[in-house]
Write a structure and sequence with these properties.
The chain is α+β, with helices and mostly antiparallel strands. It contains five helices and nine strands. The chain has two domains: 5-81 and 164-182, no CATH class; 89-142, Orthogonal Bundle (DNA Binding (I), subunit A), CATH 1.10.30. The strands form three sheets. Strands 2-1-7-3-4 form a five-stranded mixed sheet, with helices on both faces. Strands 5-6 form a two-stranded antiparallel ribbon.
């Protein structure tokens, strides 16, 4: 339960991060954030504790059970998430879900590389649309050739993401009904939500 997911909003109520219940409790207790319930009401630590008494889902403390928050809002952090997604190794891995785009295997992260679909030696550029996550074996097999020359097929065409892949993937991994009103920016049609139940 302490490692389950909590959506973090900035003080303008825009989603900026996903954290753990453990970290969320720490931020609420320190007065840096407030818990947000399904009615958009906010609570400091003491008020959240007092509303948790009738909740079946919660974490035992020496003072009684306290409900796990699913959404928190930071009190002073007003940064608006950037539309421009920074090109980085981690964001490429996250966009491709840490999966080799040639064989579809998801190896240990130490066995992942970045590969230029059109090799630099053939004029390929280092861009979102020309770089993919690949395993070491496929990277070696492909070498300085195009996928067609190496008889490899891309799982999907690489594209520039519209949202930072790290937060986008985290949001898609676990969703709760309490997250729904805040995800219109990063949401994709047809995705379901999970009820806020214990994990």
């Amino acid at each position: 339960m302490l490692n389950s997911s909590v959506l973090v909003l900035n003080c303008s109520y825009l989603p900026i991060h996903v954290t753990t219940v453990r970290r969320a409790f720490s931020l609420i207790y320190q007065g840096t954030a407030l818990a947000v319930n399904g009615n958009y009401e906010t609570f400091d630590f003491q008020a959240w504790f007092e509303t948790s008494e009738e909740s079946e889902e919660g974490i035992g403390t020496s003072r009684g059970r306290i409900r796990a928050p699913r959404v928190i809002v930071l009190l002073t952090y007003d940064r608006v998430p950037k539309r421009h997604v920074r090109y980085s190794r981690l964001n490429i891995f996250a966009r491709d879900k840490f999966t080799c785009q040639y064989c579809g295997v998801r190896p240990h992260r130490s066995q992942l590389n970045l590969d230029h679909v059109i090799p630099r030696s053939l004029g390929g550029r280092t861009t979102w649309e020309n770089v993919v996550c690949s395993c070491v074996d496929c990277n070696r097999r492909k070498g300085g050739r195009t996928p067609a020359q190496a008889r490899l097929r891309l799982e999907r065409r690489p594209v520039r993401p519209r949202w930072t892949p790290v937060i986008h993937n985290a949001v898609q991994t676990v969703r709760y009904d309490e997250w729904r009103p805040f995800l219109h920016i990063v949401d994709e049609p047809g995705r379901g939500y999970r009820r806020a139940s214990g994990e």
